Amino acid sequence: MADEPRPKRPKISRGDDDYMLGNITEIELCNFMTFNKLTCKPGSRLNLVVGPNGSGKSSLVCAIALGLGGEPQLLGRASSIGAYVKRGEESGYIKISLRGECKEEQFTITRKIDTRNKSEWIFNGKVVAKKEINEVIQGFNIQVNNLTQFLPQDRVCEFAKLTPVQLLEETEKAVGDPQLPVQHNTLIVKSQELKKFERAVESNKGSLDQLKAVNAELERDVERVRQREELLAKAESMKKKLPWLKYDIKKAKYMEAKEQEKEAKLKLDEAAKALNELREPIEKQKRVKTTQEAKCKKINGLIDGNMKKRMQLLEDENRLGVLMQGKYNEMEELRRQEESRQQRISRAKEDLAAAEAELAKLPPYEPPKHKMEELSARIVELEGTAKEIRSEKMEKEKHLNHNRSILRQCMDKLRDMENATNKRLQALRNSGAEKIFEAYQWVQEHRNEFNKEVYGPVLLEVNVSNRFHADYLEGHVAYYIWKAFITQDAYDRDFLFKNLRSYDVPVINHVGDEGRRREPFQTTEEMRKLGISSRLDQVFEAPHAVKDVLTSQFGLEHSYIGSKETDQQADQVLGLGIMDVWTPENHYRWSRSRYGNHVSASVESITRSHLLLCNVDVGEIERLKSRKIELEDTISTIDANLKALQMELRQKEDEAAEHRREREEIVNISQNEKKKRREMENLVNQRRIKLKSIERENDPDITITKLIDQVKELKIQRFRCAMEIKSSLIEAVAHRRSFAEINMISIELEAKIKEMESNAKQKERFAMQASLNFENRKKEVEECRQQLIDAKKHAESVAVITPELERAFLEMPVSIEELEAAIQDTISQANSILFLNHNILEEYESRQRKIEALSQKQEMDEKELSSRVDEINALKERWLPTLRSLVTQINGTFSRNFQEMAVAGEVSLDEHDMDFDQYGILIKVKFRQTAQLQVLSAHHQSGGERSVSTILYLISLQDLTNCPFRVVDEINQGMDPINERKMFQQLVRAASQPNTPQCFLLTPKLLPNLEYSDACSILTVMNGPWIEQPSKVWSSGENWGSVRARLGGNHC
């Protein structure tokens, strides 16, 4: 019975309209991908969807997948459902009608989607959960995630990458008995569990045998273990006496240390008494020495006074001697001057005559006044021009300094604002964006490579002036958006995404919609009464693209801002249709159920902002940068004008300096002539005066007489000074003798004091040694006392003496050495009993208990293993024959289809005994007569050959499938015309069979002169500015399915 071939699925009954249960009868799209509005009514058999690339064919595939419960990741396009909403729209929907048991029975599934990635499911006009939609779709056996049933364009290459195991799983799900994949999965799970169980049984058996063998060997050692334990117990008893013997020794040592402490204290007292007896005579001698030193100091002062007096007398005597010698020199000089005066009178008369003769020879001089006046006028004119230029230059320098000051202020302000930027970047890094600085720096360095302006991170672009508003905005917007970068061009997005991938920052592409305008916020009287003053999208500043992204993705235009009054009247806010409101203390949100239409509310406390605290005004930064460039250009222009004025001023000043130089030369010549005449006149006058002066000089004899009298007086004064010096010397000698006598007495006293201090220091050293010895003895006593306490504690911790223990101690040795020797002998005797494991007895008994438990478990596990093997064999006998029959049928159809295309192919089941997770389907093909059959893969076949193999395999499943429809998107791409034509004929022939499901084949082109049948429906998708009128003409027809769509100004 198991070897009989499995019959094909029951013949499907079709209605009068040729549709069968689960066929798609209508597809309606609104604001989906490229379509504004589209209604499509496919045929019941083969639907050829034809149109140029980009016309919207794949949009139908996406609509079928998403409308029937598929996820965006299934299509290999966008990862979120919101990306499928038409650009510039907020929401859209997909509506798919499925055929029921009869023509009148239709099942309508609608999926509403929006840009916030939210979906709403409607089944036959009623809002339901997605779980119910999945149950309906499973009832029709629709599997949009099965590549053998649903093959979109972006996943065609994945089919060829399916492993034989994966291909078997997909085929089981798509065709044959629905229980096949369930049975297969059950076999995989049970076989894996069986292998684990077998390994556990074998491991358990090995452990049991090992335990039994080990215990058999240990029985001989148990008796020896007990004997050894008795000897060790005796040694432990001896060890208890050992600390008490040590305590007795410590006690004797403590008593000896106490006696030594008393002796040290007596010696210390004797040394201190002897030291005090020596210190009093030393102090008495020091007082006598101090008196003698005072006398020496007084006499020393008298000696110094005498020395100063003698020095003054010597200076006076020397001065008088010098004056005497000067008077003698002066008298000699007067005699020589008289002789030279007569000679000078003669020379003066000769010089006067020569000067008068030279003055008479000088010619008269007249200066050029006319030329002087011309030069002065020209100099005045040039100085006036230079003054005007200086004035203009000062104005421009003042203007230049003013602009430079403004530039410095602008740069300082820009630097401060950029520091605020660094603070925000640091806040992002602290919150988890570890590479945000590197990402920001990369964008700044590559700004010239972008097509349009790139913003980001978003945190730097947003400015909130109110602290509370910053709390609201940060609490409302998701964290990831703050570190995101926003582009306005698809190329910029891809370029940025590629280079910032390693920095872990999101990239969002914003496409502006100029036609869309949000309604401005207007406060109604009811809002004012409740304290609502603004909307969340109105309280911050940001570039248009950034603000549009925040508003569209997080619904800021639906979130309102209230006050403390709103907190008190929060229950009335819902009456205004407001579902989200922020107050200084709380965040209120209301949501309406899609099922019962009842409203639920939530209240959350406000979390303080930690990212938006340091505001960065991006607009102000851009304005400052523009102002900085403008100021730099102005400064450059003014600087150039200043240089030109400086050159002109230098030219005027040089010309005026040249004229002044000419005028000064003329003046110098005139002055030199006048000076020369005045000098000659002065020379004549001076020589006349000199001659008269020489003639009027006094007679030197009178002067010489006066000088002789002055010399006599000076000699008398010198004699008086000499006598006073003699008296001072006699007084100094007397003072020196007295000083020497007193100083000798002081020296003798000092020597005596030093001797006495030396004796005292020796006594002090004796006292210090006695004190140190006493301290050491005292410390030793304390150490002995502490050791005695520790020894007693240790002995008591080892054993407290009881009468029984005391009697036992009497039988033991009385010295530590003898006791330790006895302990060592006992331990050695115990250690002479050798065995490898000290815990052999405990292990023996524990192992015996484990042997009993493992024996019981082994018996039960062997029964369980036999039961599991029987269960797997029974399930395998139900699953494997059915699977073999199914693969045989697929192979027959597949081989026949390949033979008709003049090539060869086969489908076989790859079996692996009990390894059910390795079972697979092998597709082997060859496209050349001389080649061998090879497994279908990307390594052996070209892209066109893989496409032919894929479509023929899908055609082979047509007559076996349980699904109501199949979708194949652009499978003919890459095929050569011959294979494409043969493939199309196979597809038409399969679609013409009465027992085949509905099929959608999407292609941008069809070969000419193909053979069609009545089972073929052609859906042509066209677009362009002039397509509207033809689409209306061809919108209805007897055999023409209708496709009506409007794409902006385009229609298809």
Automatic annotation (TrEMBL):
| MF annotations from Gene Ontology | ATP binding
Biological process (GO) annotations held by this record are: chromosome organization; DNA recombination
Sorted alphabetically, which keywords does the UniProt record give?
Answer: ATP-binding, Chromosome, Coiled coil, Nucleotide-binding, Nucleus
- One Pfam assignment: SMC_N
Is-annotated flag, keyword Cell membrane? no
Cellular compartments annotated: Chromosome; Nucleus
The GO cellular component terms are: chromosome; nucleus
The coiled-coil segments of this chain are 201-278, 331-431, 621-697
Keyword Transcription annotated: no
Ranges of residues in domain RecF/RecN/SMC N-terminal = 24-990
Q: Which Gene3D superfamilies match?
A: P-loop containing nucleotide triphosphate hydrolases (3.40.50.300)
* Family named by the database record: Belongs to the SMC family. SMC5 subfamily.
- The protein here is known as Structural maintenance of chromosomes protein 5
